[in-house]
């Protein structure tokens, strides 16, 4: 639900929160698993975060194409996938930093796009709490990965 009492559609709500499971499990696992398994979970967290970041950018691509827009939304929609790819090719501290910063920036951009009518009105109400958990998972994972 949003602060105004309007409801987020149930399917995006359920799928959004279900999509947090790999973030939470991987981040916690980095801390709790043996070193060998923590290395695997670290890579799992980074690769899943990169996939989801690219997916979130593609939402803008879809909306821009749907409206036949020749707009900044279409151009900016490709940046998350480029930054995700970059993050996967950088050393650990930078990989986590790039992903974390991009999730935050994309969430802000999503809010602007929603207020402009380019995304559904309920989208920021879903994205803000999901992004907060994603960012916390990435920070927990980053600090856990220091021991690897």
Structural class: mainly alpha
Bulk shape: globular
- In angstroms, what is the radius of gyration? 16 Å
User: Roughly what percent helix?
Assistant: over 70%
What is the strand and helix layout of this fold?
Blueprint: H1 10-18, H2 21-32, H3 35-66, H4 72-76, H5 79-88, H6 92-115, H7 123-145
Helix pairs in contact: 2-3, 2-7, 3-5, 3-6, 3-7, 5-6, 6-7
Q: What descriptors fit this protein?
A:
148 residues, mainly alpha, 7 helices, 0% strand
What does this structure look like?
With 148 residues, this protein is mostly helical. It has one domain (10-145). The chain has helices at 10-18, 21-32, 35-66, 72-76, 79-88, 92-115, 123-145. The relative contact order is 0.18. The model has no long low-confidence stretch (mean pLDDT 93).
